[in-house]
Amino acid sequence: MNDGRTIFDQMNDRSREVFRRVVEGYLDSGEPVGSRTLTRTLSEKVSAATIRNVMQDLEYLGLLNSPHVSAGRIPTQLGLRMFVDGLLEVRDLDNSDREKLDATLTNNTDDVGGLLDRIGSALSGVTHGASLVLTPKHEAPIRHIEFVSLGHDRSLVVLVFADGHVENRLFNPPPGQTPSSMREAANFLNSLIEGKTLSELRTVMATEIAARRQEIDSLAHDLVESGLAVWAAEGDRSERLIVRGRANLLGGDSQNEELDKIRSLFDDLERKRDIAEFLELTEDGEGVRIFIGSENKLFSLSGSSLVVSPYMNADRKIIGAVGVIGPTRLNYGRIVPIVDYTAQLVGKLISDRR
Q1: Is 179 within 8 Å of 149 (Cβ atoms)?
Q2: pTM metric for this prediction
């Protein structure tokens, strides 16, 4: 199946303009956009029949859909995704929106929870959508951890703390990870987690990795000394013990058992390194993200979109996130700068209260 970038490369200037006009018209009105409407707005003067042919091609590519016979077109989820990634023009923050958000600063005497509640209410009022405010990260013993795949390159970690607090953090999983491997990682961490904070859990994983590496070194020492094996990329994440061919002809069953044990330890070492990387990635984050329709597995609302941005403390560490949930027909060009500004506002509030 073609992804959005490949399809975009296949389109000519006319197709791109027709596609952009259809999406913008739909986001503005919520109604299908017809060929006659487009003849009045396109920069190039073409007939309605020509535009209909272009729209049929875009429908064939999976970017547009016709909800009714003889009606105009609306963008598909793939079409919206491609528009957001490649054609969206983000506007400057409107002054009236900025003033409404800034008004949350007039009473800075609340506790952090009260401040975030007021900011969430202001964000909902400005965007006419449901607001999402994930509270600052805190170091407390963790009761349970779970990784949820949101796509091939996006995941969510759910942290349940011993005091009942729950945090959801978005991150990019290491390449090649599957939902199954993420479940295994969570199961392993949950077996170690009792009474430990996230940073303490990372220390435990570092100790586990060091112990495995030492065990491998001890077993492999004689093979390396005798020249039957050699380290490749020693010390790197991709290190391997290369066993020379003649080593497999020597030593009989006892040496084969030793080699099997080394291989098994390497597999275990790699799993633990992956798990350690998961823990590190839960501390990372990025700028405004947009999840459209069924991409939005976080809420299982196939007809909704989520625009979310992390916020940072004075040390530039990501400590939470704010966002807006609404229909896929969001005014993304307006919502993105609002969410971005709100994230900056929350970060400033949290930093000023330290």
Answers
A1: yes
A2: 0.58
